Each structure stands twice: as structure tokens, then as C-alpha cells.
Amino acid sequence: MELSASQVRSLILDEHAILRDVLDEIEEALGEMTRRVPGAMGRLRASLRTFRDAFLRHLSHEETVLRPLLKDVDAWGPARVETMDEEHQAQRTALHELSCLELGQDLDRTVQQVEEFIRRLRVDMVTPEGTRMRLRTVLPGVVVGEIAMYTGDTRTADVVAETPSVVMRLGRASIERIEATEPALAAALHRWLATTLSERLTETQRAVMALFD
């Protein structure tokens, strides 16, 4: 049976909730390991097995039911799918490396590697409670922060570079200087930003409408 966009979203959120619960169990076991609590290693092994099975099912669901929706949701759809596939490949690789760890051979290294894997996963997980999550992956050349610049409101998201990047900043003071010295250039800049905002609003509306299909 084909799922609607809202059903897919509910499925992904439910699976994220399950995965977060298991991650909490893993983190609890890691804390016990650092305190040398008896039986902590066995609890860690069991939680990691549970997580591996649940996570692989989750990746499969994203690839079978989420990918078609991402592809057509807006103009960035194909890029979103490509990013998801790259993330899944990296996550599968990390999960494999995790499963190959000789748990207990090097306690500190085991704890460090498992904690790093958990940290990376939590960043990507959507939570209905509004905790930190990845909103999207942007491509080179994208403009960010233009809404806050126009409205003066507090920005609602951070941009974090995952690879070495060159970032060019155009602040309000710089734009005001352009407006004073080169009005034609300033007008062209504002038209370009207005077009960018309009395109993003259209994409957002499409995405929101898809959730209510």
C-alpha cells in the first residue's frame, strides 16, 4: 500500500523516537562502562545489536518510501535525494565499523567511537519537541540569513560547515553603502534577494502541502 506524505512523516518520526530510546540506553551503558559498573559491557552489546537492527530497518524505509517524496517535493528534490543517499552510505559504513569494534579491548577508545557515532546520528534526527536537528543540506553558492537581515528578527537556524568552505559576508552596513554610492547595483541586489525569497517561499509551501496529502 502506498503511503501519503503525512503517513511517511509519521513513520519516520516514530522510528526516530524508537532509535532515540535505544541511543539513550547505549549512552547509559557507556556511562556505566566508564564507572566500571559490572555487567555494563553486556548491556552495551545488547543495546548495540538492538540499535543496529532498528537502524537498518529505518534506512530501508527512508530509501523506499521517503526517497520518492523527496525527489518531487521542490526544486531541490534531486539534491536532497543525493544528500540522503550519501548520508546513508556514510552511516552504514560507520555502523559497520562500530559492529567490528573489539569491545573491551580498549575501553576508552570504545566509548569515544560509540559516543561520536551517537552524536552524528542525533544531529540528523527530527524531534517533535523542537530539539536541535538538521533542517537541510545546502549547496555551494547558497544565500543564508537574508530574512533576518530584512526583518531584524532573531535567526531561527545555524549554518554549520561540514567541509572546508569559503564564506562571503554581506552585512547591512555594506548594503547601505552600496545603496548610497551605487543605487542601480543596490536595486539589482534587492531584486535578486526578493527572487530568492520568493522561490524559497514557493518551495516551502509545496513541502507543507505535501505533508497534508
Structure write-up:
This protein is mainly α and 213 residues long. The chain has two domains: 5-124, Four Helix Bundle (Hemerythrin (Met), subunit A), CATH 1.20.120; 146-211, no CATH class. The protein has helices at residues 5-34, 40-73, 77-99, 107-124, 146-151, 172-181, 183-211. Helix 2 runs antiparallel to helix 3. The two termini are 15 Å apart. The mean pLDDT is 76.
Order of secondary-structure elements: HHHHHHH
The assigned structural class equals mainly alpha
CATH architectural type of the largest domain: Up-down Bundle
The 3D shape can be described as elongated
- Helix amount, in percent? over 70%
Q: What's the CATH first level of the largest domain?
A: Mainly Alpha
Radius of gyration: 22 Å
- What's the end-to-end separation, in Å? 15 Å
Number of strands: 0
Number of helices: 7
The CATH topology of the largest domain turns out to be Four Helix Bundle (Hemerythrin (Met), subunit A)
Mean pLDDT: 76
Oligomer: single chain
**Which spans have pLDDT < 50 for at least 5 consecutive residues?**
none
Sheet with most strands: none
Query: How many distinct folded domains?
Result: 2
The amount of beta strand, in percent, is: under 5%
